[in-house]
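User: Hey, quick favor. My workstation is busy. Could you predict this chain's structure for me?
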Amino acid sequence: MSRLLAVALSLFIAATAIRTTAQTAHPQRFGMNVRQGQQIFRFDTFGDEQLWTTTLQMHTALTSVSPKTALSVGLKVDADALPAEIIAALKAGTVPLNDPAVTLQLLSLNAVVGVIGKVNGGSLTSVGVTCALCHSTVDDSVVPGVGKRLDGWPNTTLNVGAIIALSRVLTDAEKAVFNSWGPGKYDPRMHAFTGTGFVTLHPGTLPVVLPPAYGLKQAGFETFTGDGPISYWNNYVAVTQMGGHGSFSDARIGLNIVQTPDLVTPKLPALLDYQLSLTTPEPPPNSYDKAAAQRGKQLFKGIARCETCHREPALTDVLIGPRREEPFLHSPFETGMEPVYATRSPTGLYRTTPLRGLWQHPPYFHDGSAPTLAAVVEHYDKALSLGLTSAQKAELVEYLKSL
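Assistant: No problem, here it is.
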């Protein structure tokens, strides 16, 4: 690493440490649940170092991972955590991205989105992850993979399985399973972490696409299968998948994990408030044909019958049941959905997916089986025998791109 880069990083790390201490000492200055929830979403590991450090020993694996490798598996770097000198060096292409020492420096700066690493004496001593790992990306405003945070956007290039497979404690067979997931996917139904080890929930693996965490304000339920309200899923993921030191119980799936102190449950209200504040991103300028989209909207509401289930305001019908706390769900066979994943859930059914921000997160459907919006329209045309013409399908796609 160049001397200038090392000095700049060292000075910035010191300044960051001072600022972090001040924020910790005076949390009331940053008030409000949304602000607290943002900090939790971005930086709170819930004590999941017990999984990522103690069990998987990822701190030993990451010591040899270069920034180039990290970026190749979809990890992102927060430009706001970098000093101006480093941003300039990145743009100039003078940062040695093949040097694992630079990865340690980025972790020291708390600049790797969703990964919290502690570096002492030049060695990585612990690793934990946060909600932002899977549900944030960056705008690539510096270089690809480095930019300003976009919270709530699913990281469609993140290869969680490949990252886990870096662990040196896993067998080759276990690594093969994780490596089979691919970018933008995760299997939350394969196993659960209890605090000391894994329990198998279902044999084999069936990964699903990482969903957005934006646009949830009027959606009510976060998961593909509507297992419970948003905080239920936050709790499930934080404890059983991220490995947080907390408690989770659901008799429907035979899980009862109790860990004290509970570092998860007290933070769920603020985390929810922050998630509900995340609005869906507007489609990029000139990314769709406005006139065709207007015609597609009429098709959506009319002969394509989309509005039967995708109802305003969130374009889902999950809350139309007699009790708001109970989701209105559908059999996978109603619309030709893949049925196996539903059987692994507490409900055995699927929620109608909210459609806002579709342009941002292909592929589509829970299993990613529709690579494009055109494929989505084609699926429903066949499954529901709609008989749409090629022109009508194209107009419907333009409307979906506009949402």
